[in-house]
Amino acid sequence: MTSTSPVPDVGPSIKKVKSKTRAEKLQTLIVYVLLILFSLAFIVPFLWLISGSLKNSSELFSNPGIPKVFQWSNYKEAFTAFPFLLYLKNTLLILVVNIFGCFISNTLIAYGFARIKWKFRDAIFIIVLTTMLLPFQVTMVPLFLLFQKLGWIGTFLPLTVPAFFGNPFFIFLLRQFFLGIPYELSESARIDGANEFKIFWRIVLPLSKPAITTVIIFTFLNTWGDFIGPLIFLSNNKLYTLSLGVQQIMSVNDPRWPLLLAVGVSMTLPVLIIFFLMQKYFIQGIAMSGIKE
Amino acid sequence: MNLKRKNLRNGLLFISPWIIGFLVFTAYPLFSSLYYSFTEYNVISPPTFVGWDNYKQLLFQDKLFYKVLGNTLYLVVFGIGLTTVVTIFIAVLLNNKNIKGLSFFRVVFFLPTLVPLVILAILWIWVLQPDNGIVNSFLHLFGTNGPGWFSSPGWAKPAFILMMIWGSGRMIIIYLAGLQGISASLYEAARIDGAGPIQQFFQITLPMLKPVILFNVITGIIAVLQQFAEAFIITDGGPDGSTTFYALYLYQNAFQYSKMGYASAMGWILFVIALVIMLVLFRLTKRWGYDG
């Protein structure tokens, strides 16, 4: 309508601008209200986990709100009621090996896909992307049988060795990042006589710290929370990870829930700390995964 | 050595860890599971060839298999559907330029994705506790008694969908990144043409967001097909098989009933399902003019 009517005087149009800002203010208010409501729905279960970990058993069943007396002893007991430290040690061991393996393998592989031009490269890269969509359950049974033949069941090997052979999501992330590094840098190094590995190690890797950090964070997240891997491949309870250990004490009759919740808070806390320290890398890594160039 | 050959050699050398890993941990298992799927194998005695028996039994005799497919389809359709609507809605709210504290809200929506699966399961057992859980206590304020959630055959699947939405922060972030990539000039032009916010949403935001929606829906479906820990820990498939999802049933066959051949056949059916989904994906991306 406005486009067809000429604008002879200034008065009405100013009014219009004013009413528009009022409408905009109202709209902003509605957006805030909705965001706060959604935020509450997302945050309340979290708060409940923390408050539940500080209650005694009977209060946990009767009072969904803030604990009357804070039972800090739940945390002390949780550490001793089950082999928390042993499971923590196992988890950390797997974690360190996986971070190392993921770093080494995925940077090399991504470099081969991003910085060297060779025949079949892009066709093979499509296979890499396709494996990202392959559900784990498709290969789970034969993998188990393979690891059993190799005598790996009941050791950490099935949970660590595959990390040294690349992960499609990490290859994708690193490749995207490597593609953005100026090629002149590689060229001048090559003229100075550097070979491909030297260019990778001395030039591309030092410039890729943000992407590498993202990969390490996601490796941490995946390994720390992994459940089905340890469940299938670790038959010996001395090797259990935290996730599997928690599930095992949970499945006994009449588990002590407040202790479990205290373990839950303790297991979530390291992830939260790393998240808050490295937020930028989390958000970037995830936002990037949805944008295929 | 000429440059082309040198580059080919170097390229293959750099990606060699992936080639080995792909052959050993993906290709070999895939084909050996095809072999196992035609056998009866309980791990203790060697596999015996049974032809199509496993597939026949799955498709024509195992009534639970169809129930499992139905349960999984339910999660795919209603779970992914609802999650998509909610996450796009939240992302659009967050994309409002008048909003302050964007990073705060973003953190709030992302936090649930940081909870380890096992803890997530424990947490939700309590959140949806029929008598004293926070959800039913909240419903009680309005004078209604909430359902039994995980203990009710009709409400257990919706309970899993609630969990799914709660843990959808990654999708919100991906949608937000997609929304931020839409050029402001498009909205400007639409405003000049007199389009209101709702028209703008349907005529600009949604079409421009299509590739991102496609990505989230596909990865969401793959995640549902693999969903295991939550159901294994919370309900172990019950009540009355209502939450026996595909991955859980496959696990039960393999590791609880030691039917490795049967589970391998299930694995191959899952592979075909995933393959069909991927093919549809590539078709759609082509049609929508979204190619790498």
Automatic annotation (TrEMBL), chain A:
Gene that encodes it: ugpE
TM spans (from-to): 29-50, 92-111, 123-147, 159-178, 199-221, 257-278
GO cellular component, one term: plasma membrane
One Pfam family named in its UniProt record: BPD_transp_1
InterPro entries on file: MetI-like, MetI-like_sf
Gene3D superfamilies per the UniProt record, alphabetical: MetI-like
Membrane topology summary: Multi-pass membrane protein
GO BP of this protein: transmembrane transport
PANTHER family: ABC TRANSPORTER PERMEASE PROTEIN MG189-RELATED-RELATED, ABC TRANSPORTER PERMEASE PROTEIN YESQ-RELATED
Protein name in UniProt: sn-glycerol-3-phosphate transport system permease protein UgpE
TrEMBL record, chain B:
PROSITE patterns, per the entry: ABC_TM1
GO biological processes: transmembrane transport
Primary location group: membrane
Record's bilayer topology term: Multi-pass membrane protein
Keywords from the named record: Cell membrane, Membrane, Transmembrane, Transmembrane helix, Transport
Entry keyword Transmembrane helix: yes
Subcellular location: Cell membrane
One GO cellular component, as annotated: plasma membrane
Residues annotated as domain ABC transmembrane type-1: 69-281
Transmembrane spans: 12-31, 73-95, 107-127, 159-178, 212-234, 260-282
Superkingdom to which the source organism belongs: Bacteria
Keyword Iron: no
Pfam families: BPD_transp_1
Family under the similarity heading: Belongs to the binding-protein-dependent transport system permease family.
Protein known as: Spermidine/putrescine ABC transporter permease
Record organism: Pullulanibacillus camelliae
Source organism phylogeny: Bacteria, Bacillati, Bacillota, Bacilli, Bacillales
